[in-house]
From TrEMBL, chains A, B:
Superkingdom classification of source: Bacteria
GO molecular function annotations of the record: metal ion binding
Protein name: Cupin domain-containing protein
Sequence ranges assigned to domain Cupin type-2 in this UniProt record: 46-117
Keywords associated with the record: Metal-binding
CDD domains: cupin_SPO2919-like (cd02224)
Pfam entry (one): Cupin_2
Length: 154, 154
């Protein structure tokens, strides 16, 4: 039966971000929906952001499309142009290769919860606000120096 | 700004199903979310099913993962094993190549609304309840005879 039993999936706040970039995502709890369902081409995670938590460092993907739908609560989407509220029912999508970093920040007093899906090729990407870039092989300072800790998928 | 402005997208009940298989999806209204957002690797449609409408003929994809999240209302998921209610907030996923046909039927008195996403390769697939199969080139009777009307993507 393909209905995803969310209650059986353990949320994880694991991140591969090297310090200190891991700190803002400590309150991001992810459940690996796509993996649980045996999906291979479509990535899918259910994400809860505690108050104050970020969805990620502000980033873009060179080869992957991303889309999220807010299921409950509210967060603020931050991009180059500024801020946009994202409320329950809102759908937000980012096409591969558009170098306008995005992330969501929960500035409210209650958790918010969304489903995030992605597809495409793992061709790395960039971060808008920090001196880091990512490739399939790991995280690098923008001058090309590898970070000591290799990136682990959440 | 990547927030999808659903109100600006025109719902379509177009289908490429040849008669009489088009009839049960006449009350299926789709908005092309992924296309509007410029996505190329990730398919995304917001779908409203009027009372009585089906999401599709009961089918599977050989090369594409599919996932939906019910946003409002309720429908019944039908597969080989039987029926499962799908309610607002439920997530349902189908891995590519699993030959267990699925579709949703709205048996209620009110519309239901879901987001459906997909990714993978267009390798065709099959239908569980009707004498039809689909390939990237169109629809065929299971004996290999092409249907007169070629399949058009909704």
């Amino acid at each position: 039966m393909p209905k995803v039993e969310l209650d059986r999936l353990t949320p994880s706040n694991r991140t591969g971000y090297p310090p200190p970039f891991h700190q803002p995502v400590a309150g991001r709890w992810q459940r690996a929906v796509g993996q649980a369902a045996g999906l291979t081409a479509l990535g899918a995670r259910e994400v809860t952001l505690d108050p104050g938590a970020w969805s990620s460092q502000r980033h873009w993907h060179e080869g992957e499309d991303e889309l999220l739908v807010m299921l409950a609560g509210e967060a603020v989407l931050i991009e180059d142009e500024g801020e946009t509220p994202v409320r329950a029912g809102d759908i937000v999508a980012w096409a591969a290769g558009v170098r306008n970093g995005h992330h969501l920040v929960n500035r409210g007093d209650a958790p918010c919860r969304f489903l995030c899906v992605s597809a495409g090729s793992d061709a790395g990407g960039g971060y808008s606000d920090i001196d880091m870039m990512f490739t399939p092989a790991g995280d690098y300072v923008k001058d090309g120096t590898p970070y000591a800790k290799s990136r682990a998928a959440p």
